[in-house]
Predict the structure.
Amino acid sequence: MENNQYIEFKQVRNFGDKITVSFEFLRKNFLPLMKAVLYIAGPFGVMTSAAYVLFMGDYMENLSSILQSGEEGYSVSFLTYFVIYISCFVLAMMLLSLTTMEYVNLYIETKGGIIPFGDVWERVSKRVVPSLLISVLLGLLLISFFGFFTIGMFLVFGEGGMVIFMIFLSSLFMYYVMINLAVFFNIFIHENRSVGEIGAIIRRCFFLVKEKWWSTFGLLFIMSLIIFAITTIIQLPLMITKLSDLFSSVADGGQSMEAFYKQSLFEMIYSGITQFAGFLLYVLLILSITFQYFNLVERKESSGLMEQIESIGSTTEESKSVADADKDEDY
């Protein structure tokens, strides 16, 4: 049975609507979606936050030792925490994306009906291994591609002042490619693709984002800025504490810098909490890109419109909606 508060994904939306509807969807589905996220991705999110706290604590201690002794170098524990942090972060973000997107799939299938956690878990558990494999494969492809691209540019142009320009140019090109690949995971999940179709998925990313690169970039930028702002507000007590330590050390001529570099128990716990809160906020970013994916598909293929034609036999209102959204789109 269709929910009268159902949010349609398969429709064209202008730039502002994609941001607004992401918050609206999260508000209306907060409890079931967050339950799924906390149970499935939450453990790795906690591990990521803990690894970050240990990593930053060890980093500050190493920095303090370097400044005091003048000798450069980092401890084995620092590198270990860094590897653990990166590994947990990748797994946590993959599970967060997978859980959110599978929840959206179920939401679309049930037309906004009740979605039990068991149904989400069943979907996610079947896609964990393929998602991990394709994530690793994509990462290796990107590292290899940009590595060879950068090396090639250095071999051809890497002389004198051209080196900095080539690094800048390579960075711009990498950013261009990454924005095009923003909908990669959406295609993989929502279109039920296999790992062997990675080439086709990449081509489809460029096909969908073509002529809407700036819109996709703008959406990612604005949502990231919103998440950063919220996280910064949450971190204010910790920032004030560290600033207080810094001012105290400056006031006594740097005699108490040790308090600034070392983390207290409160700072470690609070830092872990804020990191986990920031991790959960990424649901908003994933939702906004998911709405962008369906928006791009609808603009290119009108799949949602065709479904409505088949179900109600009328296109007048939907056609007007598409035309209005096209007029309002700024990018």
User: Anything to note?
Assistant: Residues 54 and 81 are 7 Å apart (CA to CA).
